[in-house]
Amino acid sequence: MLKKLLLSILAVILIFEEWLWDTLTVAGQFFSRILHLERFDAWLIESSPKRALFAFVIPLVIVTPFNILAIFLLARGAILEAILLEIILKLSVTLLIARIFRLVKPALLTFNWFEKIYRYISELLHWAHESVRHTAIYQRGILLKAAIKMRIAELFAT
Known about the structure:
Layout: H1 2-34, H2 38-45, H3 49-75, H4 79-108, H5 112-132, H6 136-156
Helix pairs in contact: 1-4, 1-5, 1-6, 2-4, 3-4
């Protein structure tokens, strides 16, 4: 029973992460358009695998000191501030990484180790979906996800 509960929680977390990734990818496209980053996007698409990897890792390197700050805030008792900082970091970094990944995915997949990690994550997401697909909460979640995705697409369609 405990194993089933833990697997269900893991599946829900994986599905939420996937939804967040998809949603922030749409937001990234919107910001790219309004900030006129077409040339930068084209440059990333044409990147060599090493440059693509560098571009993919930069947001993670930039955010690390802020993650440490959030832990420091948490240790000092500033729980709300630490949580808010982590939420802002999670959203902004996921937006950047999702956007960059969408543009440089073919170059990144030329790395054998990256392709293996990508395949493993894809299989894990497939497992998560299969594990909870027939549950009522998942069915409601799919409907909610579609409604939110449509609303966000409407907001960012300019």
